[in-house]
Specification:
With 255 residues, this protein is an alpha/beta fold. The protein is 20% helix and 32% strand. The protein has 2 domains: 91 residues, Beta Barrel (Elongation Factor Tu (Ef-tu), domain 3); 145 residues, Rossmann fold (3-Layer(aba) Sandwich). It is globular.
Length: 255
């Protein structure tokens, strides 16, 4: 299925540092707002010399005509983004990809690190019905708890060092949550090793699970084939076009 998309020069409304090398980039959403669904992403043209490929960023919020994305500085492309100021323009291509299913009545969202960004719009879409399990290395990484607080039913936290919430990983706390609460779907985004662990536990409890995959991509439109992944039925899917959201059993399987 081909989804509607736009390529727009949008005005920067904010570019604020919110964590350790993590920024919230807000642009004037315009027509993108009406098309955006939780789990989709925007492909940004980086306004810098010697940066030719766009960069994908999950859509985190679409509030009051503004579209917000979060990014961590990891290279020259994202480093260049930090120089954008209010009133500058950036070209946004999107919204791209297929998003999350919204049919759940009692959802659990599980995110780690920057994987929490696309789960924010999903949490808002469930209008206070979703629980959120979030994990990070330490308390400083989990500034997300305050961002999610207005939209989550309940928030559970794990940190590697025990500085906030339960010491350990999300995969260690998840079985306990599933033993105490009834969820009809689990949605997860973050490091692949975490998502594979979450998906395995979900399958053991017979709970449907959707995962949001991340991979380096060039075009974002399914033409360059740089982001293909194997699936359980033998087909090769394009993460940018067929995903980034998949049902866990379709992409996490024994080869």
């Amino acid at each position: 299925m081909t989804l509607p998309k736009l390529a727009l020069d949008t005005e920067i409304l904010g570019n604020t540092k919110v964590g350790d090398d993590v920024y919230a980039l807000t642009v004037h959403g315009g027509a993108l707002i009406d098309l955006a669904k939780p789990g989709q992403f925007i492909h940004l043209q980086i306004p810098a010399e010697n940066v030719f490929l766009r960069r994908p960023f999950g859509i985190a919020d679409t509030d009051e005509g503004k579209l917000t994305m979060y990014y961590r500085v990891t290279g020259k492309g994202t480093r260049a983004l930090t120089g954008l100021q209010h009133g500058d323009t950036v070209n946004c291509l999107g919204p791209l990809g297929n998003g999350f299913s919204l049919s759940s009545k009692r959802p659990l969202l599980v995110g780690g690190g920057m994987g929490l960004a696309p789960l924010l719009l999903l949490a808002k879409s469930f209008q206070g019905e979703a629980d959120v399990l979030m994990g990070g290395r330490n308390q400083a990484e989990l500034f997300w708890k305050d961002i999610f607080a207005p939209y989550a039913h309940e928030i559970f936290i794990t940190t590697d060092d025990g500085s906030l919430g339960v010491r350990g990983f999300t995969t260690e706390l998840l079985p306990d949550l599933l033993g105490k609460r009834k969820y009809d779907c689990i949605y997860t985004c973050g490091p692949e090793i975490m998502m594979r662990g979450i998906a395995k536990i979900a399958a053991q409890h017979d709970i449907p699970c959707q995962v949001s995959l991340e991979k380096r991509m060039a075009c974002g439109l399914g033409a360059c084939l740089s982001c293909v992944c194997d699936t359980a039925n033998g087909e090769r899917k394009k993460i940018c076009k067929d995903g980034p959201v998949f049902w866990a059993q379709d992409v996490f399987f024994e080869k």
